[in-house]
User: What shape does this take?
Amino acid sequence: MAKHALAISALVLASCAVSGCCKKKGGDASSATEEDKIYAVGETIEFPDSTWVVVSAKDRGKTLTPNNPITKARKTDGRFIQVVFKITNKTKKHEGILNRPKLVDDQQREFGEVGTPILFIPNGKSTLGTEPIPPSLTKEFYGVYEVAADAKNLQFRARPLAPWGKQKSVALGL
Assistant: This one.
C-alpha cells in the first residue's frame, strides 16, 4: 500500500512539473496573473477605492531647478526622476495618501520622493501631499524622486487609497 501511495505521489509531482502548475512567480508572461502584471505608462490601474494612470516619467538629470527664485537648486550623485500620475477617488469621502508611492529598481531598492517636491514641479501643479482627492473626481499629481545613478528598470508602485492592499507596478522605461 505504501508503495502505491509513493508511486501516486511521484506521478502527481511529475505531471505537475510537466504542466507547469508548480512554477514560481515570475515565470513567462503567459503565466502572469492580474496581481503580477506590470503596467505600462498610460495604462489604467484599478483598485477597489481608486483608479490610477501614470501619464509620464522623465529623467531630470543630476540637478533639480526650483520653480521660484528663493529656493536653491538641488544636486545629486544619482539622478532625479519626475512622474506625473492621475488618481480617481472611487469612494464617497475626501481621501489622501500618507504613505506615498515609491519607485523600485531592478535591484529591489525603494526610492521615495525628495523633500518638498512642490518646490521643483511646475507652478500651479500639485504633489500628492498638498491636497486631498474629492470623491468621484480625478486629480493630477507630480512626484519627484532621487534615485541611485545605477538604478535601472524603474517601476512606479501605485497603491490603494486605503492604508492596506497590494501595490501594482508601472514600468517607467527609465
Notes: The beta strands are 38-40, 44-46, 50-64, 74-89, 103-104, 110-111, 138-147, 155-158, 168-171.
